[in-house]
Amino acid sequence: MADSETSADARKHKIFQELLSPSELFQARCQSHKIPVKGQKDFLPNASEHQRSRLQQSLDEHWTLLQEERVERLGNLVKAVWVSEERRVELQSPAGKFWHSMGFSDRGKQCLHAEEALYLMECGNVQVFYRDLPLSIQEGYERFLSSETLTVDQYQVYGHLKRLGYVVNRFDLSSVPSEYERQLNLPASVDRQRKPVKRKRSQSPVSSDNRSTSPLEKTTAEHQSEKQVKSNESLAGQTTPDQPQGELMESLPAPEDSSERTWWTEEHIQPPSAQSQTRAPRWDFKNLSFPDLGSWSRSACLESPDPSLLPGALEVGDCHMTPWLRRLNVKEEKLSRRQRDRQRDRDRYHRDINRDPKVRDCGNWAEYIKLMEERRRQQQKQRPAHLWEREVTPLTQPGQCTSHREVLERISIIKSSSWWEGVSRAPPADQWKISFDVYQPDTVAEFKKSHPGKPYSRICVCSFDGPVPDLRIMKQLSCQSGDVPVTFAAVDHGDISFYCFKNFRLPSDVY
Amino acid sequence: MEVKEDVDADGEDQSTGDDVIDISFCGSTPLLWKVSDIKRCRGAGVIGALVGSLARQPRQNVRLGRPLELMQEEALMLEETTSAAASLHTQDCEDEEAARQYEAALESSYTEQCTLALEDKKTVLRRIMQEKENDTDDSGNAVRDRLNALDQAFSFPRSAMAIQLCTARAGFSHCPDERSFPSTDWPMPRDERSEIRFRVYRDLRSKGYYLTSAGKFGGDFLVYPGDPLRFHAHYIALCMSMDEQLPLCDILAIARLGSNVKKTVLLCSPQKPSETGKDESIEEGVVYSSLQWSSMV
After folding, report:
1. What is the interface size between A and B, counted as CB pairs within 8 Å?
2. CATH number of this structure's domain B1-89
């Protein structure tokens, strides 16, 4: 039909009208790169010519900017291909400067995520092909952005942050160190993707038939050495009963292993075949003295150790401490007058607990604690009846609370909870998830893709039409994020606002 | 959703087939890509918001470029007043012919750019020669030799060729465009709230105001007396149904916000069509209430 033909032709004309001719392309090389500044706005429209002409001028500027197409030298463009099955873009020519902070390698190929590729297309750095035809930005939006990769809102936030200069990566839940790892305080450079470095084990002189059982032996040796240390401590100055010692000794089949691991214990574990008799513990703790090198009154000479303790035929003479003491800073502290006064005030009521004869009589920590408990109970017996025997008793005893905070804690009914309490293990609803890690622009120079380090913030994208996150969701998200703050990016038709919730504790000490 | 090609034959809108505004949907977000479409919309009073990178300077956020994101109400308005259709994703059709045509176009562009570059270089050299004619040294001869040798010695490498990265769909492939005209088939959620918003939008638009979205101001629309490029907004419009109850503290909050940004707050509610057998196609108007701080004297 003639009608449909002309309409099809007309439509094709309309489709192609945004293509530039070669001469236009050639001219575009020297197009300006400055953006005109928007002027002041008026308040009320009147029908004046002045306003109309200014409006027309603004509109013309607007259309000029919008109409411009991206024209690039073919040599500056990186060629890439969209692989729709894997939802990513594979580069076919070497990457440019953007490779420093974007993209990833997979089986030897350089690849970009969907949002990275779309952003680079908009910047005019990458030309993406699909089935041998180049994709326009519109087709990029339609193909790359879907519910499986990114929504349009998330891409808007991504583009906004990238244009400001931040480094933005996809959020990966496995990259967040768990609570346990954080407690261990592992160095930040631990990278999970790397293969665990094989630690060199020291040579253990184990005979081949014992190798299979050596790990077990090592642990049992450790246990035994621990037991020995404990038993020796509690039986200070007494001979150990022969029986348990003998049992311990005989259960050791591989003496060389254990001797290696337990060289630090006081007991030389000699091959049971050689010696079957037990020996008394070597150390007499009452006579052991640990040299106090800090105080002045110490004689500057250490005796030589017992030659039976030394390996081989080593001979060690007396140790003169004077040169060593000179290296230590044992100068007397010269306090200023004010500091001396302050010290004197502090010391006025200071009672040294070590001078208490009853404390000196205590043989170990258990006895000391018992003594303290008794004293506390006695103190309580001295409480005046008119205060303590009625229905209403004083809140604290004198001297028990030393700060306002402690007093306030005693009367608090509402206990403050920490941010981490009560976080449910269930993952938050689908619409609330962390999308990106963001790194600051001024760290771009040192940014390494393999060790990105701790991000500046993590972004969760939401919409102005949607609900505000409630406390449960905020707790879950910040728990997911570890110690990195979570920022909410609210998108409203191109306008992006960033909101961050900061944990705040009310001060409880009154000064 | 497939719309057959012969839709063009019926309906008076479709007679001028090339005047349809193509709305491209990304998820449930309507986007406009062609400058001609954007111009037509602005002529009809639909402003939208630009959300892409600007071609001239892509790495800044002050001025953005295409695509233009439309509010749901704006897309519905376009469908009512002008002829707008949602262009659905074209099928992936195997088209080797298109790839060959593209390659051919690239080649011809390259040869043409070669000649253009050669001409350009010649003009430059001739201009230099002209300047050197006025001097009395021999450097002019060297330039003339270069000019004569240019036809053989000139090389324009392929990597120096200028390529266009199209913003809107260039239509290289010959797959037929599929379009969906009725807005009920568009992938936008329609519920009571969006109906209220659309009625308010349509009413304000018919009074000649320009509207954009106002999430940052705590409202639904920002109402401008003229084109937003040149005028400040006068009102913040909040849409609610007639019988919706609004707590007093919310009213205070929005009034406070409005006075801080020097805009009047409008509470807009479409009137319900009365039950006494009125024709359903006639809709009642919209009731507006403005909030103003008054002092007790």
Report:
1. 243
2. 3.40.1170
